[in-house]
Amino acid sequence: MQIANPMYDVVFRYLMRDNKVAKLMINTIIGEKVKSLVFKPKEYSHQTDGIPTVLRMDFAATIQTKNGTTHVLIELQKERASFEVVRFRRYIGEQYYERANQIKQETKQGAIHIQGIPLLPIYILGEKLTRTAIPVLKIQHQYIDVATNEILDFKHPFMECLTHEAIFIQTPYLKGQGRTDLEKLLNIFNQDNMTENKHFLNVNKSDYPEQYQCVLRRLQQAMSDKDVIAQMKREDEFLYIMQLREEELLLTKKVAEAKTKKAEEIAAIEKQRADEKEKLAAIEKQRADEKEKLAAIEKQRADEKEKLIEKMILKMKKIGLSVEEIAQSTTMRSEEVQQIIAKHTDNH
Q: 0.85 exceeded by the pTM?
């Protein structure tokens, strides 16, 4: 048989607006007996540029527990794709802050206390959170004696109002799962059952226990509702626009990354050139320093040679050789020899 696809906001809303069905769904998901369930008229559909991405519905429930009855605010959020944890946190924060989610309690002494209603968020997700295939994941808090690590078997209203449990339904992991009645019921979200027209799913009626047949009937009714079908088409258009924008953002990101990479490559080349230029300048400076050192060495050698010649000329003069004889022996001009002798004679 075919049913309308409840992953569409309009279909899910249509499904949960039936109190009997909503009560059965929530009763099965939380595993507690829901005595009464009231849909709160404040419904939220998060949109990004007109594109719906999250449907949020709130229910005030009275639940039968082993210790009696308790009032719980159930926040049901359905997201098809691209979930943002900040937005979910904001929704939870809004529920804690909402004055309508507080009740007055009168004590035996006549005092009135304002008590917050415990909160139970249920997330129906179109994407996977965990690597392990877990269709339904329940997060529970415990009361623990820190000194002994003993898990305590009681709950206190004050503590319950400041903490909350949560249930995560990962619809991509529903494929082939039917271990429990809950997994069988949640198979209505299994997108592997999609027909050629993605508005509808093919399901086997016999796979669903008798108590869940009303859910199938409600989803069948949605198929014949013209407004529901029209809104499903509009959702398709919105999601198509979203997909195009995501592709556009991805393309823009790739172009930006390519530009950044090109700029980095150019910067690297420029740096390499600058480094090479710096190395060449260092080599030239080294060469100039070496040339200067060589010049200094040559000058030192020339000075030492000049001193040696002068010393030799003075010795020759001392032993009585004439200026002409000294010049002939040193291959110097007589005038040069005479200047050297005169310089030393003046110094003395």
A: no
